[in-house]
Records
---
Amino acid sequence: MPEAQTAVTDETIIDVDKIRADFPILSQTFNGKPLVYLDNAATTQKPRQVIERMQRFESEEYGTVRRGAYKLSEKATRLYEEGRQKVADLLRAGSKSEIIFTSGTTQSINLVAYSFGKRFIQPGDEIIISTIEHHANTVPWQILCEERGAVLKVIPVNDDGELIMEEYDKLLSSKTKMVAVNHISNALGTINPVEEIIEKAHQVGAKVLIDGAQSTPHMKINVQALDCDFYTFSGHKMYAPSGIGGLFGKMEVLEDMPPYVTGGDMIAKVTFEKTTYAKPPQRFEAGTPPISQVIGLGEAIDYINSIGLDSIARYENFLLEYGTKLLEEIDGCRIIGTAKNKASILSFYLDAVHPHDVVTLLDEDCIELRGGHHCAQPTMQRFNVPATTRASMSFYNKKEELDALAEGIRRAIQVFS
Ligand SMILES: *Cc1c(COP(=O)(O)O)cnc(C)c1O
């Protein structure tokens, strides 16, 4: 299984100083202190290549897409569709028509819950999610179940934050119509065994949505090999702008789904008697899209590819291992989420200090962390903590920044004890 290989670590595979020079924000200092940005699971910073490409489009090439038969519009349409092709190549989709642009993972999941749900979910049907989902992969299914009289089932996790697969097996039945789980948990970093989850769901005839918000920037994805029906991502978590993201959907599944938002660009023919819909992906892209964001996303994908996702995974695994050791040495610091198969996310809880105080105190040293429930309250409930502090690493982070993190944590414990 490809997932087992993610434990390979290599500190030297990335020239981190060279990479950092591409990210203007990382060279900033505040009160003379360098910025230590460790909130990459919430959003990532952008390389100048992405910023400059969008600026060039806005200042020299801007036009609308899919409408005007004049130069600017034709070029904008070509660049926009090239962005779609880059996403299809990144996810190894069979065709770029299977890529729908949305504002991000939240909208992608809502699209599927609304559209697939409206057409296929009946009273008594069951939808399976897991305990460690983002609210974006919980609430839309919950609402769908309430509206359609369907039942939401939840895969439990063990104390390491790994899905208990025997329990998943027990939840599956001919009533299961949809299984929706994340590839990597944003709150704990767990990498879920999605191949097995997908295969077993298909055996009972269910469709599968994988929330890939955290996985797309960290590892190679192949939606054809995974055989998932839907896969989501967010641009702003993969070095691209906010406001853009997307949904992969198998064409045969998308073709049977009604539109989610209606209006211009998603129709085949409109009369007051009847409107017929365009084919996917246009059917799901009503209205004028975020054009320069798509072009920025394409540039971000080029940037990721120029480093290589295998190298990114190896280097980030190194950071995870290094940071884990540092945190394990601190008395009174408990790592929440200790799965064998993990991405570069370190959630922790200090006996002596509330996560919000940890974040405020370390911010004084310009170390940027996230404290809270990470839009995953059921995960916090499962581990009996009100919140955690989270450090999430990217390929532009350095081990010295994790040394600074550990030092900051020790200082916080001292201040509060
Ligand atoms: C961030 C995140 C989301 C929500 O993504 P948006 O970009 O805010 O729509 C959903 N699931 C996971 C696992 C995430 O990390």
Note: The chain is about 40% helix and 15% strand.
---
Amino acid sequence: MRRSLESGWLAPAGPELQAFEAEIAQVARQPHALATSSGTAALHLGFRVLGVQPGDEVWAPSLTFVATVAPAVQMGATPRFLDVDPASWTLDPHLLREELAAAARRGRLPRCVVPADLYGQPADMTAIREACDAWGVPILSDSACSLGAMQHGRPAGHGARLVALSFNGNKIVTAGGGGALLSGDAALIAQARALATQAKEPAVHYQHETTGFNYAMSSLLAAVGRAQLPSLAERVTTRRAIFARYAKALAGLAGLTFMPEPAWAHSSRWLTAMLVDPRAFGTDRETLRRALAEEGIESRPVWKPLHLQPAFRDAPVVGGRVAAALFEEGLCLPSGSGMSPADQARVIGVIRALHRG
Ligand SMILES: *Cc1c(COP(=O)(O)O)cnc(C)c1O
């Protein structure tokens, strides 16, 4: 960061930004990367270069953060929400395959599919690719929360036409804010880069064939990201250890089960998520969450599925019962890389005290 301040390259382009893009591309094993002002901006650019138009459908899992589809909705697209697979809590590839075949029969394939990784758990890109390739539907992977995670031996999101990442303050590696759009397709990233910097044509008077955005990452944030990125593997190890400690201390209690990890996945365990079965545990998720809050411990329900959000009340949904059940019983526990075993023991103590309490 000092390097960036002293060089006088504060914004917008510069050597720190270029170096950060090269380093992100290497970590994500993608040939081309564009650093952006946020993960949401990367998704917006992704929708734009995939040609999303008003009236198009954009398909996403119901169990995700709102930003997975928000930019497409603002562009006039209609989201269609598909249920998640109970074995991964991410987009159900079997359901996707059936629905794509049905959509092809209706003559209305989606403009793109946006699988989303969940709490560090990657979506099954091999199976999703198989379903989408059959109909030539491109994939934009929302891998905003899963940097450092692997699926089928490849980084999260790998195999999608475009991958969006986030370096927001709460993510495993942060730049204090920011994101990235990555691809194997140089032309798509070049197009996104032009759109991210106000779509200026190469002319001294600023010629514009279309309008773009101010979505580039600043050099200062790139320098922060560069300082954090080398510790990614260590951070994943720490998060996985936090998950393992919770699971070891609590999974023996009737009524508590932890987020599964399929054999093909290596989650970053960005957040530890568990399910509270009120009958077996003796207390429901909300009561447990409030008991933790009374001790000054912040936990959070699993994301409310998008098909249950008032903002999307008119959007079509396929299934949704799995996502709804995970929301009903799911709780995310404190999982920050800076958590000590003593901090964790305190959380575990409160949960244990409530068991059948
Ligand atoms: C964090 C996150 C985003 C948004 O990223 P920002 O950088 O905050 O805009 C989108 N999708 C998912 C799944 C996320 O976890």
Note: The pocket of pyridoxal-5'-phosphate is lined by residues 38-40, 64-65, 67-68, 116, 142, 144-145, 166, 168, 179 (CB under 6 Å).
